[in-house]
Fold:
Amino acid sequence: MKNNLKQIRFVLQGFMMRLLYGRNGFDNLARLCYGLSMILLVVNIFASSVIIYFTWIGLFAYSMFRTFSKNITKRYAENKKYLEMTNGIRKRAGLVKLQWRDRKTSRYYICKSCHQQIRVPKGKGRIEIRCPKCSERFIKRT
Ligand SMILES: [Zn+2]
Structure:
């Protein structure tokens, strides 16, 4: 039984690999569109709006188009541009996540001159922080 499942998974994996061979694959931009389309799908259960419905179809179709596109060079360039454009937001989101994870022990600051992320222990009062990368000093309350 266990072996059967393994075999099925092996076959499915092979199938997926053949299906995506020479294709762009599920890149970040495709993932974003797919994620958004799934959110819209759920929202539309309650909203049942035609506009949301067509936006959903559009986003879903676009994510599939990207995944199975054979023009990898062009898709790669688009994906890269998307990553560059959202770099600031994604960095900030990552920082918020870290802040939350370490909220009891540490605080995170961004160096104003070089944008290096600096972690300092919490509860030390007003301290002078020196950026390890560019040696800029600034005072913060932790
Ligand atoms: Zn710095």
